[in-house]
């Protein structure tokens, strides 16, 4: 393809054909010229301050914080920080011996509360903090709320950092809209980077971002997951918080390396067709002295009233969502991880705690809203505005809510009265299913409704079926430990759980370790028990998960219509006595239909009659009891021919063998 460009010739304007190669050359030269002649536009204009005051400035990371610039021919760093109630603000660091009066900043004097200033002859890699003297006379040393990098805890200084990086994920980014679409397979591997794998010969240290780019990427690709979800990689002072006590909303955790090294990890994921979601925590922040808490001597980011500003469960501060500057800060953070780190979406932690003013509070410990209700109207408005802003800027990403209540339309658009998320974790399904599976099979018939109840509300939201880290900590035991029976039955139950999960409508998420049958519950201070893969039962579970992912990605019926009742059809959900379930998963093409048969008892059931919608040969495409997975190899010899024998209200039926504690998928051959 080419474009037409005017050309002066003989005093008249004619035209000649110009190739895209020439155009790219001209554009590149112009960009390089601008880069060389135009300083970084980090200075706050009057229009910036106008946007901040009205709550619509969502790229604060380009304006506040520390930015490397050249001013009047001198290279240095421009600092800007919001501290409206401070009496004095200065920058301290190695460059001035941490002297509190050496490098003062200037207040804009326009009521914005922004302090700014240029420090010459410093740059990339410089440690710094802000010294703040409050109007009460307190003297504080604070890390930069907009800092791009920080020291490894327990040190707490921010670090001036250039975020430049040469990305190589253009192919992924071009097709991300398809890969993240809700009618595509999304199977997520949830990872805590610090404990996925460690190096025992080097003090049991965690792998770095760069080391993970080699080992984790190859493992996720081998297992067939479509995405990973990193538990919070935002800067946090205490590893025992797992990242959920965030102090740096614009800085990655320095435990594992610097910003470019995290970019390298994400880049490698994308180059291998693996999406990356990042766990993000706008629900609260810790009260560490160098962090956001009482930043300028006042409750700047948090509510002053403890009935709204203190989280009783996590002993941390709650953001003041009604303050426009705080909304700007958080929405800018959300957008930052997409813009600078190419994140494919955020999993938003603790949404339920944001929605309700009385969350985890007794009567008298909370303040009703202006209508006397328990809904946090400011937080609700913030969530909607955030999702609108993120999807407007990056329509090809996915915002996922961890929301555990019956709040309606969490994953529906804001214009339709929803909160605007793309997906919502199905906590109800997770709870009911794990309670059922933990029962000895002899008692399961009394809890059959815990398997079927979820289908009553399955299509009210865009659900993600999650078996996350929360289910394998704090004495709950691992997934394998939850399973009843002797060891072979426990492994069979675990395979059945995973097979059942992949057959349910909704996207999938598994926490690391479950995919190979970790015995011990998760411990953030040690590696997963990879040595277990020396034993065949664990190899079998891992192989089963690998094949489930492959089947899930290959079969459109398992993902194409997850969020509408047309993608699911019961055949028989009432066999509580026999402990069986039979249903169909359906895609756009009727030929893609899959029959799922589950046996939740340890009894082999032979010659079981199951109604099917069509005649022909129904091939057995997966069987959790296959010997390769560690099972007893009970099955259907590759498939079953449909007979013209009515069952379950259908003209045709199959005579199938249901393996004990097993799940089998069938698909009709064309």
Largest sheet: 8 strands, parallel, barrel
Tally of strands: 32
Question: Remind me, CATH topology of the largest domain?
Answer: TIM Barrel
Choose one word for the global shape.
elongated
Please, what is the CATH homologous superfamily of the largest domain? Glycosidases
Low-confidence stretches: 1-24, 26-40
Please list the strands of the largest sheet in the order they lie side by side: 11-14-17-20-21-22-23-24
Helix tally?
Answer: 15
Classification by helices and strands: alpha/beta
Q: Compute the average pLDDT.
A: 92
β content, as a range? 15-25%
The Cα radius of gyration reads: 28 Å
Helix content: 10-25%
What is the first-to-last residue Cα distance?
Answer: 42 Å
Q: Tally the structural domains.
A: 4
Q: What this model shows, in words?
A:
- This protein is 25% helix and 24% strand.
- The protein has 670 residues and is α/β, with parallel strands linked by helices.
- An 8-stranded parallel beta barrel has the order 11-14-17-20-21-22-23-24, surrounded by 4 helices.
- The protein has 4 domains: 36 residues; 114 residues, Immunoglobulins (Immunoglobulin-like); 369 residues, Alpha-Beta Barrel (TIM Barrel), CATH 3.20.20; 104 residues, Immunoglobulin-like.
- A hairpin with a 7-residue loop joins strand 25 and strand 26.
- The N terminus is likely disordered.
- The protein is built from 15 helices and 32 strands.
């Amino acid at each position: 393809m080419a474009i037409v460009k005017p050309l002066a010739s003989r005093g008249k304007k004619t035209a000649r054909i110009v190739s895209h190669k020439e155009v790219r050359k001209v554009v590149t030269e112009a960009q390089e010229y601008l880069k060389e002649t135009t300083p970084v536009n980090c200075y706050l204009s009057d229009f910036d301050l106008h946007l901040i005051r009205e709550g619509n400035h969502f790229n604060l990371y380009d304006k506040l914080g520390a930015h490397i610039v050249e001013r009047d021919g001198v290279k240095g760093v421009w600092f800007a920080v919001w501290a409206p109630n401070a009496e004095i603000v200065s920058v301290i660091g190695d460059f001035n011996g941490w002297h509190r009066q050496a490098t003062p900043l200037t207040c804009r004097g326009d009521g914005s509360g922004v302090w700014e200033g240029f420090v010459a002859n410093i740059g990339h890699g410089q440690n710094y903090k802000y010294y703040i003297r409050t109007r009460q006379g307190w003297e504080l040393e604070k890390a930069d709320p907009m800092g791009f990098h920080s020291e490894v805890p327990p040190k707490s200084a921010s670090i001036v950092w250039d975020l430049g990086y040469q990305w190589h994920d253009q192919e992924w980014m071009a097709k991300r809209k398809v890969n993240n679409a809700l009618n595509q397979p999304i199977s997520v591997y949830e990872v805590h980077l610090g404990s996925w794998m460690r190096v025992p010969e080097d003090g049991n240290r965690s792998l770095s971002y760069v080391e993970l780019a080699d080992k984790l990427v190859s493992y996720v690709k081998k297992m067939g997951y479509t995405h990973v979800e990193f538990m919070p990689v935002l800067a946090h002072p205490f590893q025992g918080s797992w990242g959920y006590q965030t102090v740096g909303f614009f800085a990655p955790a320095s435990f594992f390396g610097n910003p470019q090294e995290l970019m390298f990890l994400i880049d490698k994921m994308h180059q291998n067709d693996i999406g990356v979601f990042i766990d993000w925590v706008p629900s609260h922040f810790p009260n560490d002295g160098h962090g956001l808490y009482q930043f300028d001597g006042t409750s700047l980011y948090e509510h002053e009233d403890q009935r709204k500003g203190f989280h009783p469960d996590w002993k941390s501060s709650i953001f003041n969502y009604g303050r426009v500057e705080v909304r700007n800060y958080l929405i800018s953070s959300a957008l930052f991880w997409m813009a600078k780190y190419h994140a494919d979406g955020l999993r938003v932690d603790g949404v339920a705690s944001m929605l309700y003013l009385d969350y985890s509070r007794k009567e008298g410990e909370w303040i009703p809203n202006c209508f006397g209700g328990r809904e946090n109207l400011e937080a609700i408005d913030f969530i909607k505005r955030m999702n609108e802003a993120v999807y407007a800027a990056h329509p090809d990403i996915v915002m996922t809510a961890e929301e555990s209540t019956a709040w309606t339309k969490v994953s529906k658009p804001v214009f339709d009265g929803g909160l605007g998320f793309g997906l919502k974790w199905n906590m109800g399904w997770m709870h009911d299913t794990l309670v059922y599976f933990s029962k000895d099979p002899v008692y399961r018939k009394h809890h059959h409704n815990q398997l079927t109840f979820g289908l009553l509300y399955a299509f009210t939201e865009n659900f993600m079926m999650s078996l996350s880290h929360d289910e394998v900590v704090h004495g709950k035991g691992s997934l394998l430990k939850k399973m009843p029976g002797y060891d072979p039955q426990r492994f069979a139950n675990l395979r059945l759980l995973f097979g059942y999960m992949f057959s349910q409508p909704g996207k999938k998420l598994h926490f690391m370790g479950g995919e190979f049958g970790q015995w011990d519950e998760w411990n953030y201070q040690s590696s997963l028990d990879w040595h277990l893969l020396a034993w065949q039962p664990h190899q079998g579970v891992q192989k089963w998960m690998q094949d489930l992912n492959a089947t899930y990605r290959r079969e459109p019926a398992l993902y194409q219509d997850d969020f509408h009742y047309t993608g699911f059809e019961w055949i028989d959900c009432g066999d509580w006595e026999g402990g069986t379930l039979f249903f169909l998963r359906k895609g756009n093409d009727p030929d893609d239909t899959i029959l799922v048969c589950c046996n939740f008892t340890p009894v082999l059931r032979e010659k079981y009659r199951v109604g099917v919608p069509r005649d022909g040969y129904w091939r057995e495409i997966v069987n959790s009891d296959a010997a390769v997975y560690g099972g007893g190899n009970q099955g259907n010899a590759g498939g079953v021919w449909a007979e013209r024998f009515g069952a379950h209200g259908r003209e045709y039926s199959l005579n199938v063998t249901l393996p004990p504690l097993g799940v089998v998928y069938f698909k009709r051959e064309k």
